[in-house]
Structure formats: structure tokens, C-alpha cells
Amino acid sequence: MTVLTTPKVDLERFREQGYLVVEGIFDPVADLDPVVAEYSALLDTLTDEWVANGTIKRDYRELPFAERLAGVLNEAGPSGFQPFDISLPFNGVTEETRIHLGSQVFGLLRNERLLNVVEQFIGPEILSNPIQHVRIKPPSRLLGKEFRNTLVGQTDWHQDQGVALPEVDETEMLTCWMPVFDATEENGCLCVVPGSHTNGLATHCPGITDARKALHIPDEIRGDYYLPVPVPRGGALFLHRQTMHASLDNKSQGVRWSFDLRYQPIGQPTGRPWFPDFVARSRSNPATELRDPQVWAQMWHNTRTHLASITEKIKTNRWTGDEPVCAA
Questions:
Q1: Strand partners, 229
Q2: Distance, CA of 186 to CA of 254 (rounded, Å)
Q3: 88 burial type by CB count under 10 A (0-12 exposed, 13-18 middle, 19+ buried)
Q4: CA 135, 317, 94 angle in degrees (round to 5)?
Q5: How far apart are CA 273 and CA 176, in angstroms?
Q6: Sequence-ordered list of residues with C-beta below 8 angstroms from that of 319, at least 6 positions apart, any chain
Q7: For labeling, which of 5, 36, 281, 307 is most exposed (least CB within 10 Å)?
Q8: Closest-CA residue to 118 (of 194, 189, 14)
Q9: Apex CA 190: angle with CA 124 and CA 37, to 5°?
Q10: Any bridge partners for residue 237, and if so which?
Q11: Distances in Å between the alpha carbon of 164 and those of 116, 212, 270, 299, 317?
């Protein structure tokens, strides 16, 4: 059995380019396959439920995972992906709003080798920032146009600092983008604008119908140059909070599956104060670390109860759409 050691981070390159691929963090069999099994079981549970209540007409079990998920989502609609996500939506939350809070996902958030790598970026006092998502993207040809800019469609250009509240501006937020399987140009890996983090925060324009789904940096600000960044299974792409990035379209025959995770030093604002954060690692006070996935799940359930009880719409970012470049 191969014993993985913690890779060493090239901080100089990260500071210069605003991104860094680190390979060999996760053991595909021990760390990633259990996550796949957890989600496969979730898909089985949901399709059985949705067939029974008439949400979808059939369970598509005869198809491979990518085609099956696409078939299910095309019937259920974009909202059908919410039960797979590891975050709640911003608004319209009820006590019945689904969120996936499985123990294998929690294990990823607290993966020891991952935290060893994160520690090299931001130090030993590590908070898990609640800006987190899973993206399971079937081939785009299998999905309707309504899935554009959703968690299963192509993602527009943005900076991770730009999709949070201004309170996060001084936070050393680090993005960890990790593929469950190889992320390639064909299946829709991320692409970045190298060095764009040195230009500060760019204006983001909200979408017409749903700011969360379509918040983006206009092309005239971003420019034409970008670099696709393939990441092999077991590795991760780390991004500076001001690095411009987007995803390519999935033109392959299979699924492109990734987790968007965020980490930051303990004590700094998260940019999503209504969502629960937790201490992933503390060298100075290990007793404060959250190790129980059930406690983590309950934190999100408590948040859901709170959000379901309020009527006012939550302000999720700083942008109004009145910025001159957004009117173009």
C-alpha cells in the first residue's frame, strides 16, 4: 500500500501567479472512492423518492452515472441539484430544503494531508469557510439551456472575493478546488488569468434573474487571455481570493465532478456570516477543532431553521448592477 506524504507548496509561484496545482494530496481509494459511493447512494435514494412522488418519470438506473444524472436533472429541473450540494441556497430556504451533509464529505473538509497543505499557505490556525459547493457536471450536450451558470453547468468568470460580502476583503481566504476524477480541458477544468490577483478586486455584474448563478466579471474587464488548468485525481488547485477564474464546458462523455472548498485563518470574517464555519485545525488549541460530522450537520440544520424563519431577503454580495460597466 502506497503511503502518501504531504506535498511541499511552491509559495513563491503561488504569490506570483495567484494559483497553484498541488498533486498527490488525496488517496483516490481511501479518500475519494468513499465520497463517490456516498453520492451514488444519495442519487439512488433521490430517484426512488422522485419517481414515487411523480417528480420524475423513471430512475434511469440502466445508464452510466453521467447520463443518469443528466436524465434525472432534466426532468427535475435545476433545483433538483440542491440535495447534492454542501451549502444551502441564499434565499427561499424552508425546513424542507435539502443539503448533503454526509460523513465522507466532512472527512474531505478535515483531510489531514489537505490541511497540511493549507497550513503551508495560511498557517496552523485554520477555519473552514462556509463558502463551499459540490459541482457534478454531466456533458453539457445532455442538459437543457436552463442549466447554464448552475452548479452543473459552465461557470462564468469571477473572483471568489467578489461573490462574498465586503467584510471578507482583508481575510486571507484560500480556495481549494479539488476534482473527484481527473479534470481535463475536454471535461471542463477550471481556467485562470495568471497574475490577475495583483490587480485587486474587479467589478462583478449580477445576473438578471439570480445573482448567485450569474454573478460575473464583464469581458471588457477580464480581457482575452486565460489558461486552462487540468488537475489530476488526487490533486487540487489552490487559488488566491482575487484570481479571476471560470470553468470550461464539459464536452466529454463523462462527468466532471469537483468540490469548491475555502479555508482561512481563525478569527477573520468569512463573507457569509449567516452560514456556519468551524475550526478545522488549531495547533494552539486542538480542543476547539470540530471532529464530529453529526455536529457539523446539525450546525447546517440549525442554520436552515433560522433562514426558514426570516422573511427579508439576504444581501449576499456588494454588487447592485448599477455599476457603469454592468449597464453596457
A1: 190
A2: 10
A3: buried
A4: 65
A5: 20
A6: 162, 203, 204, 205, 206, 211, 215, 326
A7: 5
A8: 14
A9: 75
A10: 21, 177
A11: 26, 10, 8, 20, 5
In the predicted structure, residue 245 carries a pLDDT above the cut 90: yes
Q: Look at residue 211 in the predicted model and tell me its pLDDT.
A: 41
CA distance 127 to 142: 38
- DSSP codes of every residue in 135-189: EEE--GGGS-GGGTTSTTS----B-GGGGS-GGGTTS--EEEEEESS-B-TTTT-
Angle between helices 65-76 and 33-53 (to 10 degrees): 40
Predicted confidence at residue 312, as pLDDT, reads 87
Torsion of CA 128, 133, 134, 137, to 10 degrees: -150
Could you read off the pLDDT of 139-165 as tens digits, one per residue?
999 888 888 767 888 899 999 999 999
Contact 183, 189 (CB under 8 A): yes
Alpha helix stretches (DSSP H) within 182-317: 211-214, 219-222, 293-309
279-299 pLDDT, tens digit each? 999 999 999 999 999 999 999
Kindly provide the b/e burial profile for residues 257-275, where b requires at least 16 CB atoms within 10 angstroms of the residue's own CB.
bbbbbbbbebebbbbbeeb
Q: Which domains does the chain have, with CATH numbers?
A: 11-311 (2.60.120.620)
